[in-house]
Write a structure and sequence with these properties.
By secondary structure, this protein is an alpha/beta fold. It has a domain of about 230 residues: 3-Layer(aba) Sandwich (Aspartate Aminotransferase, domain 2), CATH 3.40.640. It is about 35% helix and about 10% strand. The chain has 13 helices and 13 strands. The strands form 3 sheets. Strands 1-9-8-5-4-2-3 form a 7-stranded mixed sheet, with helices on both faces. A 3-stranded antiparallel sheet has the order 7-6-11, with no helix packed on it. Helix 6 links the parallel strand 4 and strand 5. Helix 2 packs parallel to helix 8 and helix 3 crosses helix 7. The chain is globular.
């Protein structure tokens, strides 16, 4: 048995069980009253009559493939984000692959990417038969460590793929400075960062192109789907060929159905685009609510011993797509494996009804698809370039984060309120303040 010392900090507001007895000192995992009662957290996304109107109008018209809502969605999203061009896709991953390919990354080329993200941030590079080169993260922001980019550049480097993780923008002034110095393309993975800004400017408007995702968890949800954006006409035309079978004409033009280059079928459909358009009408207010709820949660959690809260550096405006927090094992007196402590505490927080979870349990260089170096068979694409080392030991900060983090998405989303966020905060604090009740070794 490996018990932890009692953590001393301010107690949350007491809650009472059915018998009227205050029971905040007994964890729910051991039979105590849940801090977050069932039904406290509303589902995401919020569905209103606006969504029903758009979707039903799409259903009742005749073009259910790449239809009129797709074209309008492209124009509306480009206007909302500040881009010249947009292409609606069937996923954020598709939009990422389009960006890598449209920027001219191909067989044996190297693309620099963060060591910690969703797998698509790096597998999209493999889709173009190019080679991911990982750099470690900055612990405070969880984003790519900008200071390490330049040392990862080789004569084979073609682009930098930056990931604006969890709704916090990367320092794009620094990234663009390195890219210009070395004549590299910049692809922004903004799949989690709709509306995030750096120095007053939205992500997806800095690099050569960018990708957004609209799947279930995203700040703009259309079920599935995504958007490719760019301000470059030549990149737009290359991306459209990747998007639609390698053809040079779009589905709304007079097509000759001739494949001029290797292409895929990444188009969106009208129903999904209609749902996305409806949600887009509320996206600005959604982001404002997320920030409001996040501030309430931050206020509740400040001062909790052993808890590392998310940061918002100067010039950045966080959207809190994910509210990601870390455990400091040393402060809590734990000397074992950090992930073991995190998992035990997270299980207790889940029992309190907080809806926390681990977003990504592996750093990317430790995933088999990269370690095996055999994505297409016969060693491809790595056999086309110079040796690349994916030893996980090169990415200690990403590993430290992976083993200590947990977070939440839905509790901060509309229509949840700051009061909902504070109740969730009570559940988190309850576990930290009664951590000595947990048998970490079991």
């Amino acid at each position: 048995m490996a018990m932890l010392p009692l953590v001393q900090s301010a107690k949350p507001t007491p809650r009472r069980d059915d018998a009227g007895e205050i029971n905040m000192s007994k964890l729910a995992i051991h039979g105590g009253t849940k801090a977050v009662a069932d039904g406290t957290i509303s589902d995401w996304p919020e569905i209103t009559d606006v969504d029903r109107k758009y979707v039903m109008a799409s259903l009742e018209q005749s073009n259910h493939a790449f239809g009129p809502n797709c074209l309008t969605f492209e124009k509306e999203f480009a206007a909302w984000n500040g881009n010249a061009f947009a292409i609606t896709t069937n996923s954020g991953t598709a939009a990422l692959h389009m960006g890598v390919a449209a920027c001219g990354c191909g067989a044996g080329d190297e693309v620099i990417v963060t060591a910690y993200s969703w797998s698509s941030s790096a597998t999209c590079i493999l889709h173009a038969n190019a080679i991911p080169v990982f750099v470690d993260i900055d612990f405070d922001t969880i984003n790519m460590d900008i200071a390490q980019i330049e040392s990862a550049i080789t004569p084979r480097t073609k682009a930098i793929l930056v990931v604006h993780l969890h709704g916090l923008a990367v320092d794009m002034d620094a990234v663009m400075g390195v890219a210009r110095k070395h004549n590299l393309k910049v692809i922004e993975d903004a799949c989690q960062a709709h509306g995030a800004t750096f120095n007053g400017r939205k992500v997806g408007t800095f690099g050569d192109c960018a990708a957004f995702s609209f799947n279930q968890n995203k700040c703009l949800c259309s079920g599935e789907g995504g958007m490719f954006v760019t301000n470059d006409q030549a990149i737009l035309e290359k991306a459209r060929m990747i998007w639609s079978f390698g053809e040079t004409r779009t589905p709304v033009e007079s097509r000759d159905y001739h494949a001029y280059a290797l292409g895929w079928m990444y188009r969106n459909n009208d129903l999904t685009a209609a749902f996305g358009r409806a949600q887009l009408t509320r996206l600005t207010s959604y982001i404002a609510r997320q920030r409001e709820n996040a501030e309430a949660l931050l206020d509740c959690l400040r001062g909790t011993r052993g808890l590392i809260l998310p940061t918002e550096p100067p010039l950045h405006e966080h959207t809190y797509y994910n509210f990601t927090i870390r455990i400091d094992p040393e402060v809590l007196g734990w000397r074992g494996a950090p992930a073991k402590l995190r998992d035990a505490m997270m299980k207790a927080m889940q029992a309190e009804g907080t809806q926390v979870g681990v977003w990504q349990q592996f750093i990317l260089p430790d995933m088999t698809v990269f370690k095996a170096k055999n994505a297409f068979g016969k060693g491809s694409p790595w056999c086309l370039g110079e040796p690349v080392d994916y030893d996980p030991g090169q990415f200690p900060v990403a590993r430290k984060h992976t083993d200590s983090h947990f977070g939440m998405t839905y509790p901060l989303r509309a229509p949840n309120t700051p009061q909902t966020a504070r109740i969730v905060g009570e559940g988190i604090r309850k576990v930290f303040e009664n951590v000595e009740q947990l048998d970490i070794a079991s």
